[in-house]
Write a structure and sequence with these properties.
Elements lengths: L6 E5 L16 E5 L2 H7 L6 E4 L13 E3 L8 H11 L4 E5 L6 H16 L3 E5 L4 E3 L15 E4 L6 E6 L6 E6 L6 E5 L5 E11 L2 H6 L4 H17 L27 H16 L4 E13 L1 H40 L7 H16 L15
Parallel strand pairs: 1-2, 1-5, 2-3, 3-4, 5-6
Antiparallel strand pairs: 6-7, 8-11, 9-10, 12-13
Length: 370
């Protein structure tokens, strides 16, 4: 019985910028012509090499190959996409399919639309952005993901478009292919810089040599992917109504306050991905954590303001307690009897003295109290 796949990773011959989402065991891996070189760089063995092979000087001999003529209607990427759909794939990740010639990039963006029309999800990756296409569907992104996103209409007008959680929301709007209304929106998040140190060792040399082409490069890619997948779950500081454990209950998890928990999750994520390469991840540690430079100054002001507010709250709580104690002691010991007006004046004066940020200047009254 032929194997049925759910997810496909397709490598084209364009510039390759790593694997933010790496393949898992059982996924279909396709190389479209020169995309085979990217598979080699990522330590992956494709299940099939196909295309007109005009970008490869010497096609590999140990792989299944489907060769097509150079003059054809389908691009090599489209041939691979059609093959993936024929194998039952409902999700296709495309790497090496942007950059280079603009017409090839536009063709691959249209290929995303082809996948959407076929009921499959396609994700096209370049150095900075991820592209996808929707057809009568919806897309949910991580709530704390920072950066920019844009929404464009391909083909006929897109009606009923709604954006929530962005700086510029939309509610049942209509997007036209002739006006870029959805360009350059912003996630409401805070970008951070984070570094990790991973301690590892090879436990199965056969897997390290035969299952991947370069186990060190493979480990590096998996570390980067695991770091992104785990860190995006956590806010930098404790935030209200945030669930970091996935149990549906808000908790106090954060990158700064739960570094050991975050590091353990990163280690487990890496280990899950590199086990097939015969690698054991001994430990993962967070070595650097800071807000991204573009927001660091603003977030520092925010932290300072928060600290000042907390300090003021403590001062006010203590001052109110001292005033209450003073009034109670004066009343108990019958030192002086004060009416409500004089009590209010005394409370006001004591709070000014106790809560002020400057030394008080006393005024001595030598006359009658009244």
């Amino acid at each position: 019985m032929p194997q049925v796949y759910d997810t496909c990773f397709l490598f084209g011959a364009g510039p390759f910028f790593g694997l933010p989402v790496p393949p898992q065991p059982g996924d279909l891996i396709l190389a479209a012509d020169g995309g085979y070189r990217h598979c080699q760089a990522a330590g992956l063995r494709p299940d099939l090499l196909l295309g007109d092979l005009d970008s490869l000087e010497t096609p590999p001999q140990a792989l299944p190959v489907q060769t097509f003529p150079a003059e054809k209607d389908d691009t090599d990427t489209m041939l691979a996409v059609k093959y993936a759909l024929a194998q039952g794939c409902t999700t296709v990740h495309l790497y090496g399919c942007t950059g280079g010639r603009l017409d090839h990039t536009l063709a691959n963006l249209q290929t995303l639309g082809y996948l959407a029309q076929a009921g499959a999800a396609g994700y096209l990756y370049d150095e900075t952005y991820v592209f996808t296409a929707l057809a009568d569907g919806h897309l949910t992104l991580p709530a704390r993901e920072a950066g920019i996103f844009s929404l464009f209409c391909l083909g006929e007008a897109a009606k009923g478009v709604t954006i929530r959680g962005g700086q510029y929301p939309l509610d049942r709007a209509t997007l036209s292919p002739f006006f870029p209304l959805g360009v350059s929106n912003h996630f409401l998040g805070n970008p951070v810089e984070i570094g990790i140190a991973v301690i590892w060792r090879v436990t199965d040399t056969a897997k390290a040599v035969f299952n991947v082409d370069n186990y060190k490069e493979y480990l590096s890619l998996q570390c980067d992917s695991a770091l992104r997948n785990v860190v995006r779950i956590y806010p930098y500081d404790v935030a209200p109504n945030v669930d970091t454990t996935g149990d549906g209950v808000a908790d106090e998890g954060s990158l700064r306050g739960s570094s050991e928990v975050v590091a353990a999750r990163i280690r487990d994520e890496i280990q899950k991905n590199v086990a097939e390469a015969g690698i054991e991840v001994v430990e993962a540690r967070i070595t650097y954590l800071a807000y991204a430079p573009e927001i660091a100054a603003v977030m520092l002001q925010r932290q300072q303001a928060s600290a000042i507010i907390d300090a003021r709250k403590m001062i006010v709580d203590g001052a109110v307690g001292m005033v209450e104690m003073a009034l109670e002691r004066l009343n108990e010991n019958k030192v002086v009897e004060l009416d409500d007006e004089r009590k209010a004046a005394m409370v006001s004066n004591l709070l000014v003295v106790l809560c002020g940020n400057r030394d008080a200047q006393p005024i001595v009254n030598s006359g009658s109290l009244y």
